[in-house]
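Quick one - first record:
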Amino acid sequence: MVIFMVNSLKQFFSNRSGGFGLEVTPERINLAQLSKAGQNYKLLKYCSVDLAEGIFEEGKIVDPASLAETIRELITTNKVKAKRVATALPLKESIIRILSVPSELDENELRELVLFQEASLYLPYPKEEVDLDYQKLDFFLDEDEIEKVNILLVGTKREITDSYVDTAKQANLQLEVLEVNSFALMRILKGQLQQFSDREAIVLVNIDFDNTEIVIVVNGSPQFSRTVPIGTVQMRTALAKAMGIPFSRNMDILQGVSIPATRFDSLSTQGTVTNPGMNALTRVVGELTDELRRSINFYLNQSEDLEVAQLYLAGPGAGINQLDEFFTQRLSLPTIQLDPIATLSLNIEEEISQFQRPSLGVVLGLAMRELL
């Protein structure tokens, strides 16, 4: 069986047939299946199930057998007939680099150069321990007027990819695509990304359960990526501790809160928020904002005549009320909470709350890989 690490890049926004998207997180498994008629999308299936602790931790599948069993139960319960599946790796388990090589190379020469020469310069592990794939991006003229092509190189330790392959086999599924979370989000935003110029950077902020993935996209391609250890777990822990209530793996504690949009120093006693739980939550979100600022400034300092035009918030933590306004004020950058339902003009039979919608970006992006 062949696993295409970035098969989504080989046909970056292309359609496939007969399968579904499956997203695995430390706390939940999400499954989505789409159909398309003309320009319209319809959500055929969307279901999810809680995942027990100790099965998926820190971006790795720890217990493939238990994970496969949970997936089988989810599929059986929701009467999913398809066997083809696209799933995704956390960003921190992937190595993503942009290389520039002469455009005159034929496919065999390009493969030899990228996979057997250039890749070794960027890998923190021995090359024989890594699964690699690459895709041509844009052509350009360098300062010597020589035509070159940018190459997107993606690698993951083979033990990580093997765990996904093993889990799929045990779940009686055909794993067609194994890509990176951010690539699925980019597929959702295809139309929006095309509206920006090659001098405008877009920042994707995927606030997941135990970390946040930051990806800076220019001209439709990921140019910078970083994972910071701040996610909804840290937010819920801080909120629960300050309120004197037990921590819960349930996201409900965040659904009813609103981040104060008014600028103030959350460490100061002069702040406008007096609720201890809200102060604790705002402090964690403020730390995430600082990490975002550092990442953006680091990238911009290496890039000439480039500006950030838009931030998109995705993931389970992105649905917190007024979080987009908080980032807009703190970073002085326009920020939008991703709504993949609206972005895809998706026809849905059951309403999905505004709080939940940003968390569907990855699984719906994966489902787009398997469209009719």
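second record:
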Amino acid sequence: MTSHETRLLRLVGAAAACAVVATGSIGCDSSPPPPPVVTRPAPTPPPPKPTVTPIDQLMVQLGIDERVQLGEEDAPAKEDDRRAVLEFFDTFARSDATALGTMLSMLDRLELEDLVRSGAWETTTSQITRIHVQTGESPDGQACALAIFYVGLGHQPQLWYYTTSIDGATFDAVATPPNIMDKLSGSDWIAAWFELLEQELALAYKPDEEFVVPQKIVSGKRGGSGSSMTPGRSPTAPTAPSGPGRRPIPRSPRRPPGPPG
């Protein structure tokens, strides 16, 4: 082999070696290549929590009479309930018996019709100066709305159950304990109302007090005439409950004590 051929082979071998080094396949390192970097998409953020329109803003949107007073802390948590409560009491402030009738239960609607025919509805609602509203729940979880109607210099409370649906809202008056305004206390008047109802119901089922009936005894037998007396007991049967009255509008106003707080 000539010197030129030898030189050519060396050049070819050197070029091949450079190519192997450049591709990184030379040497004894047999470790696997690093895994590819996988970019995962960012997690989808949770949907925003539903928000409700503030009462002040709803009052303007719905054109609610300013005599209806519902504080944010006393308002329902759901938007539909807020609207229903405001619109319900707005019918009282505006003496709108027609709109009110569409939101009442059947029993209360019949009573409202009687009040309209007698003229009591117009006479009473025309004197309303303020309606203080508080919402909450009954002991069994039903939505409730309590209103203190200020009529002239007096006041009258009333509590309603209410439900809302796609068809609208329905309000149903809760029984009213006697002298309720003298007994309500604390900040949660709805809870106090139901406590008073339970007390009234317990009293209605309680037997009347026993009383002594004088008995005459002659010769060991009852009846006839004589001067010897011995007491006898004659308990009465339990009195059947006669539920407190229901009133869909204020009546018999008394001097207001101020709103619950």
